[in-house]
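Researcher: Here's a chain I'd like modeled. Treat it as a single chain, no partners, no ligands.
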Amino acid sequence: MISKEELLRIMPYAKLRVDTFLSPLNTVLEEYGIVTPLRMAAFLAQLAHESGEFRYVEELASGQAYEGRKDLGNLEVGDGEKFKGRGLIQITGRDNYRKCSLALFNDERLLETPDLLRAPVYAVECAGWFWDIHHLNGLADKKDFRGITRVINGGYNGYADRVKYYERALLVLGDTLET
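Model: Modeled as a single isolated chain. Structure tokens:
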């Protein structure tokens, strides 16, 4: 579990939203075994960067860049915008929405109502789901933050910012990067 005070030391600009996200966040940390300082630091750092410290649960861009992306399952006209990044890790693409929906709801409701991932509880839950299906606890245990970033981002966009949050989270949670 993480306290409100610890979370605000990691994400100081989350003040207005921390109470909304704290309980679902602690539930997800427990549910997906993100319970060691290394795992929590890596997870929280990625969430902080991807969501702008809980400011954004939906990608600011229109999603047009994802239109026709077969690798995301965006095969129908309008899929790019409909299935743009949402949630605290920015789940993107028809295929990911389908998989996430099956995991969270045991049905495909996110294909009809993708905005559900904007709700705080689902924004956090889909981040935990994504983390889990990509086995990111294992990378966190190995201190492979670069590998985690590659899985989440598909590259290294914003890497320095992510590392800043990671190092801050490690200090707050009582671990170090030294081996």
